[in-house]
Every structure is written in C-alpha cells, then in structure tokens.
C-alpha cells in the first residue's frame, strides 16, 4: 500500500540555496536548472509513424537575484571584453526542515549567456536574471521517504 503524503511534506522554496564557485549567494530570488532531451526523427519503410532516436541533451537555467550586489556584471562583464571566460560551477540546494529531506545538484561547465549591465524602474525593487547553460550535472543528494 502506498504511503500517505501529508501537505506539510511538500517543499517550500524559501529554504533553497545556491553556491557559485563555492560562494553562497544570499540574495537569490529563484533558481532553475533543467535539461532538454534532443531527438532525431526516424522513419521506417511501410510505416506512417515517425519515431524518435535520442541524440543527447542540453542544459540551461536561470538565476534570479535581488539586486543587492553586481552579481552578473562581476561574474561575466570583464570576460566578455577580454574573451577569457571564467570556469563556473553551481551547486543548488532545495531543502525544507518539514520535508522528507533535501536535494542538491551540482552544475559544471557553466556558461553565462548574458549580463545586465544596468536596469531599473522607478518605485520598483530591482531583480536581475542571469541565464546560463551547463555541460554536466550530478545529483549530490536526492529526497526519498
């Protein structure tokens, strides 16, 4: 028989955390890292169906920070001018003291796709989005009941 899950076991994102090159960023608003699977069409003789062959994956994500520091600019703006890109590693953690555990994922071979140099709007709290791609990932911890 399946175990009944109570509502308080759903994880609250408030306890999520992110480390960039070993430095914990305390101004995180949100974080997402995901993979997209790539497939090629495969057609067979005398078959009207189109099937798919897996050919690899691509990793991408977005870091959204409360504008407290010049995070994106410090990380990539100088590299954009010099052509010397920094090595970037991310470790994200999703945890909640009331849940069954925590989940941690390491993202490596990270490339930052853009950096906002300056943006603001009157009477509005400023956030900054930092889109990225990654070439590898590893689950460091997973949640199980």
UniProtKB/TrEMBL annotation:
It holds the Pfam family DUF2001. SUPFAM superfamilies: Phage tail proteins. Gene3D superfamilies: Phage tail tube protein. InterPro entries: DUF2001, XkdM-like_sf. It comes from the Bacteria. This is Phage-like element PBSX protein xkdM. The gene is xkdM.
